[in-house]
Amino acid sequence: MDEVLTEQRTTAPAVATTTAPADATRTVRAGSAPGTTVRCGLPDLMLADLAVSVVFCFPRALDADRMAAGLARALARAPIFAGRLRTAPDGTLEIRCTDDGVPFTTAVAPDTLPEVLGRLTLTAAGYTDHVQATAARTGGHPLLTVRLTRLADGGTALGCSWHHALGDMQTFMVLMSAWSAAVEGTEAPEITVVEDRDAYLDSVLPPTDAGRPGFRLPDAADAARLTREIEQAALANRTVQVYFTDDEPARMRAEFSEQAGTRLSTNDVLTAHLMSTLRQLDENHDEQYLTMPVNLRRFLDAPPGVLGNLLGEVYLAGPPDQAPAELAAAIRAAVTDFTGSHLSLRASRAFLDALGRERLRDCVPLGFDPARKTFTLSSWCRTGIYRLSFEGQRPSFFSPTGNLPLPWVSWLVEGFEGSGYLLTVVLPARLAAKVRSAAGRAALHQFREPADVLPPLAGAVRKLV
Question: At residue 21, does pLDDT exceed 70?
Answer without folding.
Answer: no
